[in-house]
Amino acid sequence: MTRTALVVGASGIVGSATTQLLLDNGWHVAALSRHPCEADGVIPVAADLQNPASVTQALDGLKPTHVFITTWSRQTTEAENIRVNAAMVRNVLDALSPAKSVRHVTLVTGLKHYLGPFEAYGKGSLPQTPFREEQGRLEIENFYYAQEDEVFAAAERDGFTWSVHRPHTVTGVAVGNAMNMATTLAVYASICKATGRPFVFPGSRVQWDSLTDMTDARQLAKQQLWAATTPAAADQAFNVTNGDVFRWKWMWGRIADYFGLHPAAYPPSLSPLETQMAEDQKLWDDIVRERGLKEADINRLISPWHTDADLGRPIEVVTDMSKSRALGFKEFQASDQAFFDVFDELRARKLIP
């Protein structure tokens, strides 16, 4: 039977990796984003997800068998995050409901399911690490929960199966993405290399010393595809990481080596990137001009606030993947190589020197 996917947020880090994997596996893919997707082989779909009429019009005539929801919109408060992001999911699933073509929906959320939203990130009573899927929701408002509830309600109404995927700090390539640690660190390292600035870790001592993990966008795409096509994975939530663990004091040295830098010792006080990079646009202008790079707006490449939030956490964050492993998902990706692959692609696309 022909499988047709609708990837929602196809231009983002996760959406672009998911789109490519589906294409590589012979799927028909409709790629939905605010601006038409330019990827070869896809049906471009442009819509404003916050506008129900825009979504309904854009999806008219499309009959996807599988929907991959890989996007969100950052708002100023968690109440607004809930209102906007729940509506975006609802608008898509409501627009597709009349055709009754959908057999499975995957929703990408993340570890804020366990850590809480940005307003209360890593505060209060938290479950013990490693985080496991059976650990329930926190007693706090969270837009991830609101998104899940929209999927659950639509699944009950329309009869499709679902899966929820919870990655930890996704690495990949996408210009203009709101959460982009790998590209942020690549730009930061490039500036340090060009100016002689010390390559200083911007996070907490706990993150520097403790074990942690990460998720390559390609690994996340593989788990979504696996769950969407594996009956035993239906109607379940899954953590997803690369499968290894590391300490940032090791990874910082690996990243430094890639860029030909010497990693600075852990600083005597917290040195967030929002502070370190606050005035770096002019430096970036000079680097772009001298090296013939393609993106002059540094803010389309970096997300210091998000990198600081992840690296500044005062608690250990490690994720358990036993649930999907037991059901047959065996993929693995070394996390240092995941960074290097992003850096290589950024260089190939002339986004960093």
What would your notes on this structure say?
The chain is of the alpha/beta class and 353 residues long. It folds into two domains: 4-167, 3-Layer(aba) Sandwich (Rossmann fold), CATH 3.40.50; 176-213 and 245-316 and 336-348, no CATH class. Helices cover 41% and strands 12% of the residues. It has 14 helices and eleven strands. It has helices at residues 13-24, 52-59, 78-96, 112-115, 143-158, 181-195, 205-209, 217-229, 248-258, 273-276, 281-291, 304-311, 322-326, 335-348; strands at residues 4-8, 28-33, 43-46, 66-69, 104-108, 161-167, 170-171, 211-212, 215-216, 236-240, 246-247. The protein has a seven-stranded parallel sheet with strand order 3-2-1-4-5-6-10, with helices on both faces. Strands 7-9 form a two-stranded parallel ribbon. A two-stranded antiparallel sheet has the order 8-11. α1 crosses α8 (217-229) and α2 packs parallel to α3 (78-96). The radius of gyration is 20 Å and the shape is globular. The mean pLDDT is 95.
CATH topology (level 3) name of the largest domain = Rossmann fold
Number of strands: 11
- Helix-strand category: alpha/beta
> How much helical structure, as a percent, in the residues?
40-55%
Query: What's the order of the H and E elements?
Result: EHEEHEHEHHEEHHEEHEEHHHHHH
Described by the principal axes of the CA atoms, the overall outline is: globular
CATH architecture annotation of the largest domain: 3-Layer(aba) Sandwich
Number of domains: 2
Regarding CATH, which class of the largest domain?
Alpha Beta
Cα distance spanning the termini? 46 Å
Annotation field: number of helices: 14
Biggest sheet strand line-up: 3-2-1-4-5-6-10
Summarize the biggest pleated sheet.
7 strands, parallel
Low-confidence residue ranges: none
Estimate the strand proportion: 5-15%
* Average pLDDT number: 95
CATH superfamily of the largest domain: NAD(P)-binding Rossmann-like Domain
Radius of gyration: 20 Å
Multimerization state: single chain
